[in-house]
Structure formats: structure tokens, C-alpha cells
Description:
Elements: H1 2-9, H2 11-21, H3 32-42, H4 47-54, H5 58-72, H6 77-86
Amino acid sequence: MARRAASSDRQPFREARAKLARGRPSLDILTDRERDVVAGLVHGLTNKQIGSVLGISHRTIEIHRARLMRKLGVATLSALLEIAFAQRRKLPDLRLHDSGD
């Protein structure tokens, strides 16, 4: 019974993976917050810095990052950034403030 419940919990990710296998991964399948996280990564920010910009904890950023990578079917940051740079027009402007670092 527990195995069946776990299997149904993974169904959305299986569908997303199958969809991505038919074509190039698209940032369109991400939530707005997940796209915010990707934008921060494209700017070279750490999870802690992205969390500070977005007003959420670095742990929440880690969770968003893991989920969006699973949705896109990528296992590495470099694979994620390759997709993100190719589709950077779909990313929000985070309005980063120069902290003088």
C-alpha cells in the first residue's frame, strides 16, 4: 500500500520527465519562485545570497533547487545553467543590489 502511494506521489515528475525526453527542457514548467532561484544561480549567487535577495531561508532555496532540477531532468548545476543560459529571456530580473562585496 505504501509503495503504491509513493508511486502516485512521483507521477507528476514521471510525466514531466517523459515530456522533457521528447524535447528540450523548458523553464516554462517551473513555478515563478523556481525561476527566481534559477535567475539567482545564473547571476552566480550562492543559495544563501539568493535566499537573502528573495527574503527566504537558504534551506528553502535548496529545496526549490532540488525540485526544479528534478523537473528539468538534470543532475548537475552545469547542466541546469546550460538550460538557463539558453533560455535566459524567460528568467525574471531579480533587481540585485550591490552589497559592496
